[in-house]
From TrEMBL:
Protein name, as recorded: AIM24 family protein
UniProt xrefs under InterPro entries: AIM24 (IPR002838), AIM24_sf (IPR036983), Trp_RNA-bd_attenuator-like_dom (IPR016031)
Coiled-coil annotated spans: none
Pfam families referenced in this protein's UniProt entry, alphabetically: AIM24
Amino acid sequence: MNQPLAGYAPAPVTARMENHGSHMLKVAMQTGNDLFARVGSMVAYEGFIQYEPSPSAVRQIARDWITGEGAPLMKCSGDGLLYLADYGANVVVINLAGDAISVNATNLLAFDADLTWGVERVKGLAKFAGQGLWNTRISGQGWVALTSRGEPIVVDCGDGENETYVDPDALVAWSPNLKVKGKRSFKAQSLIGRGSGEAYQMAFSGQGIVVVQPSEDSTDRLRFRG
């Protein structure tokens, strides 16, 4: 029985975070190196790992969270191997080296607890969304894991001469130094996007990347906040 299943066995640990296949995250846990993970994402673990829902660090930011009801995060601590997943979504692992990334809350799976993070307004979109849209910014030295509904594409915006346009429902993350603005295309509203019926895109320019998923999942996207 073991032989046919051997190909699915976990590989030796080589990094703090790494993929096990396309749809699962493996985290090497160590005492003192805690992790924030999406509530309900734990599918298995080895060793001694404890979980704390709605930890104090999350409650402090809860008043600024997109939903106004607190961040859906739990604190994981201990020693062992932790496996996380989100309903079969693809997992993307990023190692931040002193830089930052802006992430849609729906696509945030896990990140090192010592990273700096918080909810911020997406500048340049106020006239399209009342008082603006909000996203989660993470920065510092450490690991971040994102999810994507299907295999994502990472678009390099290059030198900023041309703008990159993205359907908000397909947006996963982007470099926060990029300039963002909204665009409406009424003439193409029946051809572009699958949202409210109005063709609305986010335009990015500057030096940086944009991560786009091949699914226009309109649930819990960048939230409007009045």
